[in-house]
């Protein structure tokens, strides 16, 4: 995995991935509430 931008490292990527995962989960819950057991 090559890093073209030295400033873009794990410390800046990780929070973005976490936010993306949370947004996807929130979107899934908002669009498909009938598919969730709770």
From TrEMBL:
It comes from the Bacteria. This is Uncharacterized protein. It comes from Achromobacter deleyi.
């Amino acid at each position: 995995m090559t890093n073209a931008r030295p400033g873009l490292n794990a410390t800046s990527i990780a929070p973005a991935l976490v936010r993306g995962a949370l947004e996807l989960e929130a979107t899934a819950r908002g669009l498909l509430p009938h598919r969730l057991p709770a």
